[in-house]
Amino acid sequence: MAIVDIPIVTPPQEEVPLPESSAPLKLTGWDHIAFSVPDLVEAERWYVDVLGAEVMGRRSWGGDDTFRGAPHVDVRIGDQVLSLFLGPAHVASPPPRMFHYAFNCRTMEEQDLWREHLIKKGVEFRGPMAHPGFGAVSIYFDDPWGTRLEIATWLEDFEAGKAAALARGGAIMGQPGYAPR
Questions:
Q1: Half-sphere exposure of 163 (CA within 13 A, CB side)
Q2: Complete domains list, the chain, with CATH
Q3: Order of strands, edge to edge, in the sheet holding 80-86?
Q4: How far apart are CA 102 and CA 104, in angstroms?
Q5: Helix, strand, or coil here: 61?
Q6: Neighbouring C-alpha atoms within 13 Å toward the C-beta of 105
Q7: Per residue in 50-88, pLDDT tens?
Q8: d(CA 86, CA 92)
Q9: Nearest Cα to 125, choosing from 134, 133, 116?
Q10: What is the pTM for the complete model shown?
Q11: What pairs with residue 181 in β-bridges?
Q12: Which SS3 state, helix, strand or coil, does residue 159 take?
């Protein structure tokens, strides 16, 4: 069944009991995230230059003749690893494009520097956007191949997030001034 054939089910409005896990233990988090890009050299350059990634290794290209799998480059951003595989860029999900990869920075001052950096690099972004119900403030942008990315900063609560976003000319998700894309 193709994804487009799967119906979207409206969630119930009444309270629903929380599910209970039958998993034998808890996972510790993501190991890595992988997606495809049409140009490994340009992708490697973009992620290093724009997001400060560190190249961990090239596989089946760029001098590596020991790996026998699909060509890709592994880059580290903070504690996270992205595996960028050679292939067609994925088709972005339709608006509001909820499918994305989110990075984290520690403070709003750091996020201010990220916004300034993205402007200097000619990367269009949306935000800062405060998230109702909790203290996250995010900026959203795409890599050159259409992969939706986010940089989120966590503050103590929604009021702090709202104040920080609005003070920087941002908006609140789902409120006037918010425009999903």
A1: 6
A2: 33-86 (3.10.180.10), 101-172 (3.10.180.10)
A3: 33-37, 80-86, 72-77, 54-59
A4: 7
A5: coil
A6: 17
A7: 999 999 999 999 998 888 889 999 999 999 999 999 999
A8: 17
A9: 116
A10: 0.81
A11: none
A12: helix
